[in-house]
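User: Here's a protein and a ligand (zinc ion). What would the complex look like?
Assistant: Let me lay out the input and then the predicted complex.
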Amino acid sequence: MLQFSDTAIQTMGSHVQRHRWSRESVGQLFSRDLTAETIVVDVVTVLKPRWSAWSRVSFDTHRAMDERAAMFEQGLHCIGLWHTHPERLPEPSPEDRALAMDHARAAQPQMTGLVFAIVGTSPLPAGLRVWIADESNLRAAEIFRMPQAATAADPAVTQR
Ligand SMILES: [Zn+2]
């Protein structure tokens, strides 16, 4: 199970493509603890794009690797990527699928799956969609919301 922290949602939410002239944003997802039953996306970063347009974005993989190394020093592990789309409920493009599977392949054997999140224009969290990529597939994650003050004993959290 995966959970996005409030700050992660806020960071992604501040980059939603609200306007026709908005450009796509891209970044990485980091978690502090990979051993927990629920993996929390604690930190979401925004990478400086190599170039970006309304519906496409490209980032510098060296810069992404540098960021991973710096975050690792702070105890944060990269678990995936996110970017924005100029559509309400985002769907991965063929390029997105290829990129996600490429990164998943490159991350083996350390990772069996790469988290691939896309933020559309519907208010969050509805506009957030998440896939898990391996070297040959992208599987849509089932999204459900936790109540505001969720605890470990909350049925919405445990009965899954
Ligand atoms: Zn995309």
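Summary: The domain at 2-159 is CATH 3.40.140.10 (Cytidine Deaminase; domain 2).
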